[in-house]
Amino acid sequence: MDASFARYCTAVCDQVRFRPDRAAIQSELWDHLEDHAAALEEEGLSREEAKAQAVEAMGDPVEVGKALDALHSPVAGWLLRVLGWLSNLTLAILCLAVFCVLISDSANWFHNFSIDIRTQTERQVVAHWIDDQEDGPLVAAGATLTTFCPDTAAQTEDYSFSIPCAACFVTEGSDPNLYVLLKVVHPLPWLRAPELDNWISAYDDLGNQYPSRNAVLSDSQQSQVRFPHVSTSQLSYARYLSAFVSYYIVRIGGLDPDAARITLTFDRFGQREFLLPISLEGGGPA
Amino acid sequence: MKADKNLLSGSTTLLVLSLLSTGDKYGYEMIAELDARSDHTFTLKEGTLYPILHGLEKEGAVKSYTKEADTGRTRKYYRITRKGLKALEEQKKEWVEFSEKVNAILAGCAPALA
Question: Which structural domains are found in chain A, ordered by start?
């Protein structure tokens, strides 16, 4: 550290009342002194002579400091800083609001917005879901659980659907229940997760129909205990939510034990939008 | 011959803007170029360059930014703005008019050489 440069810069900066600007002024003056001293050294002067001459060439530091102080007024300086902070704060609030809207999902967004959604990969979701099934009430009640990967996907205009994992519960003496983890990707930010419940139904390779739960409830046969049907619920655990991906659990109850293949259909407004065939015999292990 | 400090002070803004009109420069670079171009006639106190530059920046005639210089060190560079170029043109015109008038007076007062 060059004491003579430090003395000159300090003498200038002492005159500048707006302290936040002092560092930048000091650095600029110091660079100038360094450059000039280096040029003088190249001309053959010793380091000490060059430094002394560079400081001398700068002139009166108090005069320079006072002139700079007039240009770096504390009032204007602080006002600009406060305005800068306010605009940054406004921007941050706006960003946070947009972020909240993006990751929000129906009523429970408020609980979830602090969850780090980037760490949730499909593999993690599937692993967690399988754990949930293994610890679920059906297994506790004695059902045999088989999990598998149906490896099936469908695309509509706005959404893409896939089934990363399915779980089949077989209980002695009653029809199997199939639980399907349905992944829906909705890359357009203004689209939310679709309301599947009213529109999803299924049929199997033996010709059995599995209407949606709502259709069943409006039907006179609703009292029938083991009437085959499809019901959906959105996986609403905070960690499964993200801005562009939603997961659903689709339950196909009262499955025909002899069925080898079941096809999920998404039938909105009478237009069959997609078919997802699931082979109950094939598919790799989950 | 060293120039009278008072003669120079009024025109330093013009000189600084003129130096920047040929390209972006940092403080010492301007001093060195001024020194070379005036054949060591203009030797203003170097510290006074910075209030001039900061003042011009406040007026919007120049803008500053940080960049690595040819020497490898980081330096604060100044660039002339459109407003600065306009100011430079006006000041040049004023300077030419002023110097023509001074020359006219000096010509009128020239002592007759015997």
Answer: 3-72 (no CATH), 112-285 (2.60.40)
